[in-house]
């Protein structure tokens, strides 16, 4: 599903990616490595794989969820909706998409508890951080090429304030995840400490090149450590590993 999302985004962004030195190497169609027709075939294959795989679960609800997912991912890049071209709406799209991603897995597993919602909302806000940060990095190119993003429509100052607010909200949301999943095993505590130390190191390393924006790297790295611990915790519980104390 995620591969489909990136593939269809590349398909409809061929022309802009072709003149963007930051993105031409990440879009095989824009770089001329495959044709647009081949790209469309890849998109179709990915949709078929998703639908067939879910159909094998013999769960009508899962199949309906999958079709909703396909529509939501399609609506981001494809005209006439093309939600990525609507400032503010594209950020909301990221939030909903990543919330659905977590709930989708939880739904198939047969569990939608409070912790699932907490992880889903936290990851949704985390995706908004990445999207707004991406708008900041692409601001000059987007403005020159006439692409209207949130940063272009609201200006750099407002976008930076928005990013700071979203990061603070995200850090608040991952605090419960730290207490729930990072403090019960030696390995999870180690991963959390490593995330803090690596985040500080990366932020300091990037400071000379990026200035104040290097501070954004710390919460990003810390968040990855917390999400990894969510997975480690559940695997440890499933395998019967004793908790600390």
Keywords for this structure?
globular; mainly alpha; 245 residues; 11 helices; 3 domains
Structural overview:
This protein is mostly helical and 245 residues long. The chain folds into three domains: 1-81, no CATH class; 85-173; 182-245. Helices cover 75% and strands 0% of the residues. The protein is built from eleven helices and no strands.
Give the C-alpha Rg: 20 Å
* Pattern of helices and strands: HHHHHHHHHHH
Strand content: under 5%
Average pLDDT confidence is: 88
Choose one word for the global shape: globular
Q: Spans with pLDDT under 50 lasting ≥5 residues? A: none
Structural class based on helices, strands and sheet pairing: mainly alpha
In total, the number of domains comes to 3
